[in-house]
Amino acid sequence: MKYKVGDKVRVRSDLISGNQYGGLTFFDGNMSSHAGQLCTIKRVYSNTNGLIPTMTTTVVDASGKKATVTCDKADYSERQGVLEAIAQMACGGNFDKEYDKAVKKNKLIELHDRTCIYCGKVFDTVEELKAYEAWHVECKKARRKRYLLRKRAKEIAFEEQAQKMAREIIAEDNKK
User: Fold this and answer.
1) Strand ranges inside 14-96, DSSP E
2) Residues contacting 69, CB < 8 A, separation 6+
3) pLDDT of residue 106
4) pLDDT truncated to tens, each residue of the chain (176 aa)?
5) Which residues sit opposite 9 in a β-bridge?
6) For position 48, what pLDDT does the model report?
7) Closest CA to 117 of 95, 132, 99, 101
8) Do 25 and 46 meet the contact criterion of CB atoms below 8 Å apart?
9) Bridge-partner residues for 39, per DSSP?
10) Under a CB-based contact definition with an 8 Å cutoff, are residues 57 and 85 in contact?
């Protein structure tokens, strides 16, 4: 059966890590989390003889913990292979899951960085956000100024009313 990018397939749940299936497919331990799941094919490899040459990089740390990464020979870089093997080792063999979590977290942080703290509106750029937040600050200052003016006006009115009442009391006392 010939698969194409975008095809939906169910990953077999009886696959064993490290085995090859169909002479072509190498089942890597990283893929075990997808066993039994419905997945979408993102990339299809093909060549004339049906076999894809691969390169494997193995890294062993001081405690004897071992990690192995396999990739296409055309894409092979020893440095990248070592880095990926170390990443697999650090993530307990589940680098892809940890990577996806980090990407999701970074997107949330980036979204938070573009969200106005005053109204919650999300902006396309941080510059737009800063300009809008500056506008909010100016509006807040103007509201505070109006509040203080109203407060002072009430105080003046109260003082005038108190003086008027005092004059009336004095006038009544003078009549007696």
Assistant:
1) 20-21, 25-26, 38-40, 54-60, 66-72
2) 56, 57, 81, 84, 85, 88
3) 92
4) 566 777 777 777 777 666 665 554 556 666 667 777 877 777 765 554 556 667 777 777 777 777 777 766 666 667 777 777 777 777 777 777 888 888 999 999 999 999 999 999 999 999 999 999 999 999 999 999 999 999 999 999 999 999 999 999 888 888 87
5) 39
6) 45
7) 132
8) no
9) 9
10) yes
Query: Which DSSP category does 18 fall into?
Result: T
Closest CA to 132 of 116, 151, 149, 156: 116
Angle at CA of residue 65, ends 63 and 67, nearest 5°: 150
Which amino acid is located at 39 in the chain?
A: C
> In this structure, which amino acid lies at residue 142?
A
Residue 159 in tokens: 């003082």
Give exposure, 64-95, as e/b (b: 16+ Cβ within 10 Å). eeebbbbeeeeeeeeeebeebbbbbbebebeb
Place of tokens 């108190």: 162
What pTM was estimated for this model as a whole? 0.39
C-beta separation of 132 from 114 below 8 A = no
**Token output for 17:** 């890590």
- Check if the beta carbon of residue 73 is closer than 8 Å to that of residue 53: yes
Q: Which two tokens stand for residue 22?
A: 């169909």
